[in-house]
Amino acid sequence: MHIPAYAHDTIRAAVLPEVPTSRHVGGLDCRLCDKPFGEDLAAIPLGPTPTSGLFGCRPCLSRLVTRARRARDASLVHDAERARAESAAWIPVRERHLARLDSVRQAAEAVAELTRGGETEALHVAWLLVSLESAYLWIPDAPEPPASVDREESELKDEAFRLDLAMITAREAVAARLVYHLINEAQPEEPEMCEEFECPEGCSGRHDSSHIDCGPDAIFDDLAEHGITVEPPEPQPLSPRLAAFLGRSEAKVEEDRSPLPDIEEQAPVVLTHFGIDADDPDVLVSAAAVGLVADAWREGPLDVIHAADGGPSDGEIFAQSVDLYRRARAALVAARDDGPEVLLAFVAVASNVDLPWAGGSGFALRTVSESVAEFVQHVDDRVWFTAEVMREQGWRAGLLHRATSAAFKAPAHFGMPGWPGAVASAMERLAVLDRSGAPEALTDLAAVEATLLEAPDRLGADTLDWILTSRCLASPSPGPPIR
What we know:
The chain is mostly helical. It has 19 helices and 2 strands.
């Protein structure tokens, strides 16, 4: 017989009050009605195990289960009626409190608006704030919802938060208005300045201030006059590593803290000359990704590794540069919102000595010994420099710097506006070449063209090497270095 969970307490209450007899424990008599078990009355175990403990008969247990079910149903009905009553009583309490919060918030916003307008007299502004603060203090504590109502009353919290923000805004506006009112009232009349200020006729000679900038350190001197000493913060020049990287003296660093002070003005002119629209974010990011790969990965120590015994072929270098372009582009896009630190994701792949290269290549940097340590440091330094430019001058400045580098070094690389033209020229050359000994991937030239345009590394490093050695495409070699 199945005994539902809601009946357990009812059965337990009926079984436990009196001390059971040995016949009860031995499973001979029903613990509930004391009738002996037999063919017509089966023993149903009540625990603690199916063979030991107490036993009851089906009629007794059915009666108790029915009683428990009726009690449960009555309790559910009662709880539902209580929840409805509590909800009906809670809703008007909640609405009254929300209305109070909303009214005071609107009053705070109105005080801030009147204060900023400047037409209300300063004394009236001060009294407005006093009356507003009084209304704010008279707001009662948020009412507690009954147990049957959701305890997480988010709307009450949200309205209280909005009110606090409005109060902060009103207090700031009033404080600024009264501060400048006091300062302006104390200003002497200076009629001789009217001509310089181009004052209208009838000016009293008093020229009110609406904004005064005392600089970052004046507050520390002002507090010192009142006997309060606060140590001012140290000035923040460029980091020593960036200063050393740029070869600047300390005096020059103090004079000009930007690593590339003219990049915003000069780079767009250069990029426009090379047919790159600096105002198109997608084009700019792609060019910057090409430039980052060329500067940080392809330039410098990789040439020594390329020439070493067992070094990568031109095709392997090209396939890997395409894969790294995608990673550089993704990192540069992420750096806009998440900061330049995400460029480390590109560094992790570009300088990984154990990672096999793209295009089905088996080459990894660990297979050669020449200049690998210098190569890893070179990648880290160049990407670090881009991150520093972004920190000092903004995300766009970092893109402009590397995009300008790409315009000089790799104007026709995959990812640049010149790539489709380079592919078209390559296909013209391939069409007239004897491809009898070429890789099988070059059989279908239409498919080759589509793959070159979309993802050249999918052709494979060997196929790309054949195309490069046949001079159908320019070798992915860097141009003159650009800092």
